[in-house]
Amino acid sequence: MNIDLSAKDIVKKFGALTAVNNISFDVPKGSFFSILGPSGCGKTTLLRMIAGFDHPTSGSLKICGRDMLGIAPNKRPVNLVFQHLALFPMMNVSENIAFGLHRRGVDKQTIQKKVHEILERVGLPEYANKRIDQLSGGQKQRIAIARCLVLDPTVLLLDEPLGALDLKLREQMKVELKKLQSEVGTTFIYITHDQSEALVMSDSVAVMQNGVFEQIASPRELYAEPATSFVASFVGDNNTWSATVSGIENDCIAVETDSNLHFKTRSKDNVSIGQKVDLFLRPEAIVINPHDVSGLNLLQVTVKAVLFDGANSRLLTVTKAGRELTVSLPQNRQYDYIQKGDRISLGWSPESGICFKREE
Amino acid sequence: MTAFTKKKSLLFWLFLAPVIGWLGLLIIIPHIDLLIMSLKAENDMGDLVWSTANYMEFFREPIYWVTFVRTALYSVITTVVTLMISFPIAFYIAKVASNKLRGAYVILLLLPFWVSELVRVYGWMILLRESGVLNFFLLKLGIITTPIEMLYNDATMIMGLVYSSMLFMVVPLISVMESLDDSLVEASFDLGGGVISTTWNIIIPHAKPGITSGCIVVFMLSLGNYLTPNLMGGKNSLWFTEQIYNQFIASFNWNQGAAFGFLLLLLSSLIIWFGLKVTKQTLGKVVA
């Protein structure tokens, strides 16, 4: 497997603040790698170091095996799609795209050909002579990506480029971006705080918090097997309980929640009896009024509200102790009878829950 | 017309009145008077009659139009030099300096302008004259053996003009550069641009309105400056404003002076029009 980008022990300090703390990762050639994290977690700093606008305090950064430290941004084989795109307003679309080629001293005819090709690729062939302010949000997006891709970068960096778009367009661009990436085969490093963007597009996602990577995994693994409680709470929706370990069996543990419910579940960490833990449970792992209750954790709840949202519909329920719990409501008409105020029973399998040691 | 719109238009004229009054009394009426004056000359009997003699005189006497061309040329040079010095300064203050220092730098730039131009020019003279501060130190250090007269030459005069008009270039440049998005500069570097190509392709096009308005102000100020060329350039400065002054005050030939004044107005308008044409801009865009 060819490694396009390899970062080792990267540290970046701003005075007393450590923005990026000892991060190492490899990005294989042609993959779509996302860095997912809340704002202020250091992901933009990391990206700017890869692009060359910031310099790591320590650590090494290699692109295709070549050391990048001390190499200016205009000499690196990476290009960055800026958060606000940074298209040059003083130039039209084709001049924007041709800018990088001109800097390389490519001859006029080749430039013209390449600009035309890349505009076709992003689906805007007749926009070459438009001014930037004549484009819509999604078109600007595509031009910004085209402006970088025309240079055939080894790695394309994208800094939350979909942030400014409205929801519908964002959904559409997600799919388009993924399609574009698999067509051109360029390595993408994509930064976002939106977990759905990261999950939909990426081959591999790094979840970042407080300057460190909590977990690097495929989207599916990230969702099903979160490595830390931060990943469990940040990626996807989860119901969370505070609980205490009350018993340990072969491959699962028994816990008692602070509202005195008893469950059996899995634990990621090694725990002993009496250990305080956080229990995470996905809304879709809960079965409403299960027929076969053997081996399931069971609880009785009252429906507080039916949150209808098409395929994403949920029930907001509340336990006797007043604990709220969201449950997915599959839209297969099977549960249409459930009304607000109904008492229902819920069941979930011990394998669906996951426990982490409580960080004090 | 309804009562309300009538009232509104009355208010509009009320607010406009001081402006119209100011323009009319101080600019338009005197200029009409000057125009009439410039078109009158004494005939052989000593009576004032309509004539273009004052304008003909300008073209007939080489000293007048040579001074005129020289003034225009040196004003253009002053403007270009001022722009070249101010551009990096403005970029540094607007983009490189930290927020805290930015205010301090602007105040440092403003500080000399709290003193009148006359005093500032005398400051230069104290520094540069034969018995001045600079010569004193050069003599003391043994770099020169006899004092050098640094005043009263064209280079010193242009330096003085650049110095006295620099603020009017730096301020519009700072404000236009503050509106430049940093990520545009970064994007240019990211796409392979260097310092020169980024300046030429990104920063200058963005700063164009500021450059133009700064250039117009500096050019006008230099062209119409009387004090600096007169004091720092001395008798040889040959600045056109001196010719106007001489006609009015020394020769008491107000008609000739008025004609020169109009020629200067015509010249500055023409050069600015030409400058805007060359850079493909309009006055409306630059001022807005």
UniProtKB/TrEMBL annotation, chain A:
Annotated GO biological process: quaternary ammonium group transport
Superkingdom of origin: Bacteria
Any one GO MF annotation of this record: ATP binding
Domain (ABC transporter) ranges: 5-235
Keywords (A to Z) from UniProt: ATP-binding, Nucleotide-binding, Transport
SUPFAM superfamilies xrefs: MOP-like, P-loop containing nucleoside triphosphate hydrolases
GO CC aspect terms: ATP-binding cassette (ABC) transporter complex
Name of the protein in its database record: Spermidine/putrescine ABC transporter ATP-binding protein
Species of provenance: Halodesulfovibrio spirochaetisodalis
Species lineage: Bacteria, Pseudomonadati, Thermodesulfobacteriota, Desulfovibrionia, Desulfovibrionales
